[in-house]
Amino acid sequence: MRANPDLPRQIDNPANGWVIQAENLIKIYKMGEVEVHALNGLSLKIARGEVVSIMGPSGSGKSTLMNIIGCLDRPTSGEYYLDGEPVARLSDDQLATIRNRKVGFVFQSFNLLSRATALANVELPLRYAGMTHDRREKARTALEAVGLADRIYHRSNELSGGQQQRVAIARALVNDPAIILADEPTGNLDSKSGLEIMELLLNLNKDHGTTLIIVTHAPNIAEQSQRIIQIRDGVVEEAV
Questions:
Q1: 3-state class of 60 per DSSP?
Q2: What structural domains and CATH numbers belong to the chain?
Q3: pLDDT tens, per residue, the chain with 240 residues
Q4: Which of 97, 25, 34, 102 shows the shortest CA–CA distance to 61?
């Protein structure tokens, strides 16, 4: 499997620097007396503005890697820099602050508040960040950017799956994060909606330089990336 040859390869000339730098990451989970080695000295770099897919079989360590990249967890050892900031040794509160400022999440299951409007859902990261001035206007602009200007007051349970994922993308974008981390972003969508969501994500990268990291099992999704990173047994097996 190969990445899209028509897209520019930021990795060849990272003029704007590395947004992700991971060196020798080790993650060990203890289950009673048993130690599970999820990451075994994994290293990788992702350039600012790059579109990367991370793939690997179940148990390969990609979910653990995603949690560390997204500041949801920290490694047992090794170094991780997100947008130039060393985050591997931060406290839970510090991780939460970095996560809110630097990472936009897009999940397979959308993770929206079902009875809240699209606008209220997109405002949430701004609320957590303590923003009060222009919060609503910024959320409205993010929804307009994903093509939902006419749905901002609809509750999420009144929207189609594709529209809900657009709300989730707007929520991910609203804080101007260093990266968007998308975990199987088309997994719960029909083929047409899935294609529309991928087109939207790729256009955000093209138009705004948004760094996009996609965790996926789907070859047709991965092949739209600039680079595919294959994870196996807790290390990078191949990056093409």
A1: coil
A2: 10-239 (3.40.50.300)
A3: 667 656 555 555 555 689 999 999 999 999 888 999 999 999 999 999 999 999 999 889 999 999 999 999 999 999 999 999 999 888 999 999 999 989 999 988 899 998 999 999 999 999 888 887 889 999 999 999 999 999 999 999 999 999 999 999 999 999 999 999 999 999 888 889 999 999 999 998 998 889 999 999 889 899 999 999 999 999 998 766
A4: 25
